[in-house]
Amino acid sequence: MKMLAGAFTAALLAGCTPPVPTPPVEKPVAEKPVAKPAPEPRPTAPPEPGKVTSIRIDQIFPLRLEEKVLLVDVRRSLFYQLGHVDGAVNLPLVDFEKAYPAIKPQLDAAAEAGKVIVTYCQNETCPDSRTTAEALALRGHDVSIYSGGLDEWRAVGVD
Length: 159
What we know:
Oxidized Rhodanese, domain 1, 5-stranded parallel β-sheet
């Protein structure tokens, strides 16, 4: 029986494949910390609303002489091209959102220089000057409304 057990063990050992050497265990490489994405910029707070006031034609003349006024014609571009107050820039109310970014640097420069920003339309029955002034005020600009408009300006005989 001992012989049988020895033969059986020898047969088992003969049928086994030699053990496969295990490779040396390498230390795991420390994972690099994943960089956190930069936080998204917070939206900037809207500017403090500007003030809306009114201004008369006789108040505008001295400001023009001192170059302390920026006149903003709020009529449609076609009407502006047909005639406007000399030196005025055009910011048509109907195209306000599209036109504002282009004129914003002029408005900012005027404010920095201490100039009065004045909106005007065709005449005192035109609400566009007030509406534009309020839209500019929401963007932080102080604005004066000249309600007499181009009609009164021309009636006085200026430009």
